[in-house]
Each structure stands twice: as C-alpha cells, then as structure tokens.
Amino acid sequence: MDLNGLSSDQAPPISAPLRFFLTAPLFGILAGILIFLGDADNLSSRYSLESIAITHAITIGFVSFVMLGALTQMLPVLAGISIARVGLVAKLSHLALSSGTIFMIYGLMQNVASLMLISSILLTIGFLIMILSMLVAFRNVKNITASVRAIFISLVFALIVVLMGAQLLSSYGISKLASFHFILANIHSVWAIFGFAGVLIIGVSFHILPMFYVAPRFKQFCKKRVVWLITIGLILWLVLNIFFDLYTVVAKIWIATFFWAFSTTVWKKLSARRRPISDVTVWYWRVATVFMTLGTFSWAINDFYDEKYIVMVSILIGGGFILSIMLGMLYKIVPFLVWFHLNAKGYMSIPNMNEMINKNLAKSQFLLFMISLIGFMFSYYYIEILPVFATTFILSMLILEYNIISPVLIYIRTIKTKPEFDMSAFNISVEGIE
After folding, report:
1. In sequence order, what are the residues at sequence separation of 6 or more whose Cβ sits closer than 8 angstroms to the Cβ of residue 275?
2. Total structural domains within the chain
3. If you compute the radius of gyration of the chain from its CA atoms, what whole number of angstroms results?
4. pLDDT tens across 252-269, in order?
5. pLDDT at residue number 305
6. pLDDT (tens digit per residue) in 276-292
7. Staple partner for 192: which of 6, 129, 161, 331, CB 3.0–4.6 Å?
8. Which domain covers residue 112, as residue numbers?
9. Are 195 and 104 contained in the same domain?
10. Residues 138 and 30 occupy one common structural domain
11. What is the DSSP letter of 417?
12. What's the rounded Cα separation, in Å, for the pair 63 and 327?
C-alpha cells in the first residue's frame, strides 16, 4: 500500500466518518425490507411514492452516508483541508440526515404530508451543514490536485442537487406539484448520479487506486480533462433537456463515452497493479466498471424506447456501479481508518488491514449482492420473484454491517490498552504529491 501523501496531524476524530459508515448498511437493510414488502407494480414506476422512498433509502441513506463519511476523512488526510469543528459538524449532519431520511421514507410510504415537509427541512439542513463546511474549507487548499478539483466540483453538484431535492420533496408535502416538477426530478436524479456520485468516484479513484492497490497512476489527460468533459456534458444535457428534448441523446452519449473511458482505464490500472493479489474490493471495482459501461449506454439509448427501461438503467448504474464502488471502498476505508488512527496513537501490535475483516464473509456478501442485482433485473420481467432477491439483498447488507462493526470493535478493544509508544511528541505531516 502506497501511503505517500497522507497527513495524520489534521485527521478528524475517527467517530466522524464511522458514524456515517455504521449507519449506511442499516438503511440498506431498510430498503431491502421495503422492496420485500412493496407492491412490485408500484416499484416498476420511477415516480410512484413507494419507488421514491426506496430509491432514497439507498441514495441518501446508504450512498450519501458513505460518501460524506469518506469525505470527512479524505479531505483532511489527503488534501490537507481542515473542516472547522468537524466532530460537531458530523454529529449534527448525521442526526439531521438520519432522522430526515426516516421521516421521508415513512412520509412517502404512508403519504403523510407533514412528515414530508419536516423531512425536507431536516435533509436540507443535514446536507448543507456538511457540504457548506467542506466548501468553506476549500479556501485553505494549498495544493490543488486533480482529486481536490474533482471533489470540489462534485460538492457543487451536490449542493445544487440538494436544493432541487428540497423543492421536490416539499412539493409533495404541500400536495402541489409544479408544472416543471418532473423535469426538475429528472435533472435532480441525473446530476446526483453523474455529477455528484460519478465525479466524486472519479476524483477519489485518482488517490484510492494507487494508494490501496499500488496501481499505476492515472495519466495527466485523465486527471485534468475527464471531469471537466463530463461536467460540460452534464450542462449540455441540462440545456437540451429543457429546451431541445429530442436531442438529449447527444449529450447522453457524450457523458456515457467519458464514463466508459474512465471505466476502461480503471480496469487497465487494476490489471497492471504491482501486487496483483485479488480480493473482494478488486472484484467490486471490476464489476462496477462493467455495470457502468452497460448502464450509461443503456441510459443513452433508452430515449428511443420512451424511457421504458429506466428502472433497469437505475439498477445497472445505481446498484451495479455506484453501490459496488461504495461497498468496495468500505472494505478498504474502515480497516484503514482503524489501523491509521491506532498507529497514530502509538499502537504497533495491531492486526493489519487485511486481517480485520473475515474474507469468507466478505466474499459471501459480494456474492449475495451480485445475485440481488441480477435478480432485480430479472424481476422487472417476472415480478413474482422479487421478494427472493430482496431477501438476498437484506442478507448482504446484514453481513456488510457485521463486517464494518468488526474493525470498529478491534479499535474499541485496543484503545483500552496502553500504547507501545507515546506519539504525542510527534507531529507527522507528509505533503501530498500529484
């Protein structure tokens, strides 16, 4: 593992990212239960309240929690960006987002207007606390790397997406949908997937792949141009979607092409890594590149089918690409956090990162998750089998929660003992390179 560019003196308390990581699988479990109990016909419509509730249990409750937790740790450690009062910011944001997501899910499932309005307020507050704190912290960036630039752009997208989401959710709360509601909903979802999640994954991968997998570094064109080209494509898609809807496929193909190029590059980097030892995290990255390629081009040509297969596209991109990356990152980041923070405190006799999570359980979780994704796609045509794959999804999330808790328990047990070395006299800071 290449640890070049890490700085431990600005790292946030471990509780800041862990509270998000530990909560994320719980919302995954909840989403699985809702799918199991849900009406399959309603779930086939992207605009049904049931579909919106389940979608956001995954996108906010799982994906956003993992992303915000990762950013809480990565910005100070990799970019040298210090988030002011990060412990308090994480607590407040986590509380508002957790309660807001629960209220949203229950409000949508039961069609309770007051809960939708409350959740709109809580979710907006929760996201803004975290996003604005991070954006303000960027004022102190001294070394603007490709990763830092991509993370900043993704946060700008996130800010816009959150404001759109607030408007959309509150409109359900007052039972008055604006004339542009569904256009705004489409922009909200596309910019959330590609602008926030997609751009963030690309930016983080510039650091993650060389650091965790000792893979070759990305070429300068990829690091300096791809994020901007995708951003241009998303803006072009926005303009076409509003004013020239018949030509949106042009922008979609543009966006899909550069995500395909990135996916191909990731596959090649993983194949060329200096230590070609395969594990579950590598499997997740590899399947993610395949799902992303299939998903983006399916999204592009879906216009020719009147968006008939948009649910299938959502499974390919949202589940196959984004969720797979999130799961792979969790299996690397959580053990790393435990090792990193214990090491910084002077503990030397601790398990290495590969020993903190049971490999067989991780493989089982991966297999169950893949079965779930493929099963969800078949369920689009055979709705009676949906509960079976909802069950495998729930089991995969339960195992994931256990796998995340295991390293945390190692941390808790270890800090109750005396460290081998007193590290308080040292101030470790290695300037990032890129």
Report:
1. 213, 214
2. 2
3. 21
4. 999 999 999 999 999 998
5. 65
6. 777 899 999 999 999 99
7. 161
8. 1-143
9. no
10. yes
11. S
12. 9
Q: Structure tokens of 162?
A: 């959150």
Asked if residue 95 is part of any domain, the answer here is yes
**Single-letter amino acid, residue 253:** I
pLDDT at 211: 80
Q: pTM for the full model?
A: 0.90
Q: What six digits make up the tokens of 65?
A: 């929690």
Question: Rounded to whole angstroms, how far apart are CA atoms 213 and 283?
Answer: 12
> How open is the CA angle 171-176-179, to the nearest 5 degrees?
90
Instruction: Report the distance separating Cα 37 and Cα 391, nearest Å.
Output: 10
Q: Looking at the predicted structure, is the pLDDT value of residue 428 above 50? A: no
- Same domain assignment for residues 35 and 171: no
What 3-state DSSP class applies to 429?
strand
Within a domain: 178: yes
What is the C-alpha to C-alpha distance for residues 115 and 271, in angstroms, rounded to an integer? 49
Helices (H), 138-198: 146-173, 181-190
Backbone angles phi, psi at 176, to 5 degrees: -140, 100
User: 431 lies in a domain?
Assistant: no
Tokens standing for 253?
């193909």
Q: If we measure between CA atoms, which residue out of 127, 23, 4 comes closest to residue 77?
A: 4
Query: How far separated are the first and last CA of the chain, in Å rounded?
Result: 16
Which of 217, 249, 281 terminates a domain? The answer is 249
**Res. 97: pLDDT tops 80:** yes
Three-class DSSP category at 315: helix
